[in-house]
Amino acid sequence: MPTTLTAFADVTTSDSALRRFLHGLPGVDAVGLEARAASLGTRSIKTTAKAYAIDLAISMIDLTTLEGADTPGKVRALSAKAVNPDPTDRTTPMTAAVCVYPDMVATAKAALNGADVKVASVATAFPAGRAALPVKLADTADAVAAGADEIDMVIDRGAFLAGRYLETYELIKAVKEACVRPDGTAARLKVIFETGELSTYDNIRRASWIGMLAGADFIKTSTGKVGVNATPANTLLMLEAVRDFREQTGIQIGVKPAGGIRTTKDAIKFLVLVNETAGEDWLSNHWFRFGASSLLNDLLMQRQKLSTGRYSGPDYVTVD
Description:
The chain has helices at 15-23, 30-40, 47-59, 72-83, 105-112, 133-145, 157-161, 165-178, 201-213, 232-249, 264-277, 294-308; strands at 61-64, 97-100, 118-123, 150-154, 188-192, 218-220, 254-256, 290-292. The protein is α/β, with parallel strands linked by helices and 320 residues long. It starts with 14 loop residues before the first helix and ends in a 12-residue tail after the last helix.
């Protein structure tokens, strides 16, 4: 099995070459995709398997606050919750990361105080991505300099939908380079497609391949700021893409559905999708994340119910 992108070297040499490749990908059977996603969502997970799935889902959350009203106090509180989600039960896993705007990265980093929780930052003029390239790169560099471990960038959907695929590819490449620190280490890069604005499943597949070819460490469904965000079907499609990409290159890429995943039942459905589509290698927070805020509270309430036999209710978890 190849372990580099050598086989695809010619694909990104020109806009026309990249277009030929992307439009040569197999078309997506929308009916079949949605039927398979719905079928996998009916799997019943109970008792010890459910307890395992809940803890796994908690450990995969990028606990997120991306509001204009974010304050240092709110970010510190969210960071404390990421480290210790349930103060009544110290066996509760930490979340994978705290996700904030670039100006809050230093606050989150200080609040985490060395805990094994990453600081993720949105960048590149999130959520619309409507800014000049130097602004996007400066946005990224500022977040990395402030201590971000991960960058969640948005693509220019206008460029992509206009068919300017090489421009989209080169943007991701440039942001990837901006993630590198002076010491040679780098923040991991998550590339957000805003699938709700891409119109078709074929476009989601093409965007996935652009992201992977350009060096994304994760491909991510959405910003959570539009009407349609993560769905089982679009996440299934992206899981198929990373599976196929690894088969052809030997390179593993993560997947992050974000927006609209609010309940334990939803989270478990997505974990089933991961296991049945990409496989067990993706069942860790190094390769799969949930972009969420309210999801954590429902997972905590369901976890408490499994351990005590009683449903505590929302008054027993913090409101973020």
